[in-house]
């Protein structure tokens, strides 16, 4: 499984619509409306590069209102629960 983070700029009037369309896609697990340089952040989970390519070139092309995207591939995941487990010395 490959996890990707997609940063999205959308047309101002269509941010909510773009977010809803992204959230409805099968490989998109979460969509966040954010402040800053980008309008939305989407968390994507695909089986591999071919699935990511299909999502970006076909599915996203059908979403009206997307101005620009930047996609980053996750190399490693760090979660609080994993870190807590790694550093737990077994207090009883």
UniProtKB/TrEMBL annotation:
Coiled-coil region(s): none
One Pfam family named in its UniProt record: AsnC_trans_reg
Family matches, as InterPro entries: Dimeric_a/b-barrel, Tscrpt_reg_AsnC/Lrp_C
Name of this chain's protein: Lrp/AsnC ligand binding domain-containing protein
Domain Transcription regulator AsnC/Lrp ligand binding: start-end pairs: 7-77
Residues annotated as signal peptide: none
Gene3D superfamilies cross-referenced by the UniProt entry: 3.30.70.920
């Amino acid at each position: 499984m490959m996890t990707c983070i997609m940063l999205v700029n959308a047309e101002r009037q269509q941010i909510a619509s773009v977010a809803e369309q992204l959230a409805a896609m099968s490989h998109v697990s979460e969509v966040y409306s954010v402040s800053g340089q980008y309008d939305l952040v989407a968390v994507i989970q695909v089986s591999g590069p071919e699935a990511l390519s299909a999502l970006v070139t076909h599915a996203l092309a059908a979403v009206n209102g997307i101005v620009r995207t930047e996609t980053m591939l996750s190399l490693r995941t760090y979660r609080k629960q994993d870190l807590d487990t790694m550093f737990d010395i077994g207090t009883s």
